[in-house]
Structure formats: C-alpha cells, structure tokens
Design a protein that fits this description.
- With 113 residues, the chain is mostly helical.
- It has two domains: 43 residues, no CATH class; 56 residues, no CATH class.
- The protein has three helices and three strands; from the N terminus they run H-H-E-E-E-H.
- A three-stranded antiparallel beta sheet has the order 1-2-3.
- The longest helix is centred in the C-terminal third of the chain and has 19 residues.
- It is globular and about 50 Å long.
C-alpha cells in the first residue's frame, strides 16, 4: 500500500470507527474483519452498521448463525455460514472456530498475544 492509499484507508477507517464506535486500530486482533479489503472494494455498512459478511475473518463471532438468510430457523445443531453464503454447517464445524476464537480472546486478555 503506497502513501496515497494508506492515507485514503486511514481516513476511511477513522470515519468508520468513529461512527460505529470501533477500536481505532484497524488491525486489532478482535475486530475479525478485513477492513482493508472492504475499503479497496468500497464496501459500505448497512443500516445497522454491518459490512458485508464476505469481509469477516474465519473467527468472527457471528460467522455462523442459527437462521438462513430468509430468517428461517435451521434444525438444532446446524448453522448458516454467513461468510460463504450458502453453506449449512454442523455444530462440530462451528465449534472448532468458536474454540479458536475463545483461545485468542483469552491470550489477548492475559497479554500473551
């Protein structure tokens, strides 16, 4: 990223983080979003302030949800993968990401990251 791009991204993220009350560091490990790709693609947050799910990192806490895009509840133990948009995953698949995220959160909390 050259200086012009960096300045453009920094300005965009500063405005986004201020509006959405995000950590001012775009690289904070608990963001779970690829903000630089979102900026490059000129992604815009929706009414609730969410960027498109395709920018979620694998460990994003809302990557897997219990309803499909139409709001239909999935069978117990199955989750809609919002990042891949179209895949329904079993609890075991979701659990491995939950475990990795919790481990990362613990390590950051304890200053081990």
């Amino acid at each position: 990223m050259d200086d012009k791009e960096k300045n453009g991204f920094d300005k965009w993220y500063r405005e986004l983080s201020s509006r959405l009350k995000l950590d001012p560091n775009p690289n904070h490990p608990l963001h779970f979003y690829d903000y630089k790709s979102a900026w490059r693609d000129q992604a815009k947050p929706d009414k609730e302030g969410h960027l498109p799910s395709k920018y979620k990192h694998n460990l994003h806490p809302n990557r897997f949800v219990g309803t499909d895009p139409n709001g239909k509840k999935l069978p117990r133990g199955f989750y809609w993968d919002t990042k891949t948009k179209g895949e329904i995953k079993p609890e075991a698949f979701k659990s491995k990401f939950d475990k990795q995220r919790k481990e990362l959160e613990y390590r950051i909390e304890k200053g081990l990251f």
